[in-house]
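Input record (one chain):
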Amino acid sequence: MADRYVRVKVRFLGALADDVKLRETELVMDPETATVGNLLELLRSRIPKFREAESKLPMIWVFINDKQVMNTAQIQNGDRISLMPPMYEGG
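The corresponding structure, as predicted from the sequence alone:
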């Protein structure tokens, strides 16, 4: 039987957590539309500080269960999502 919803934990890491003023949140999504891209849209609509922080960054790296993924990746019930800005070395 398919899940009726997808519940995920989203962690904000590094400077993104500082900008968003949040370390972790939990979201519930429709399994039919549970992709990384749709998760980011949901975060933009629910967390204004995320939208502001995202606009200042060149990109945000997304990880599902510690594996880096693209925006088209499917999200499953119970997945752990981590969001972080890219790390740059040098100066």
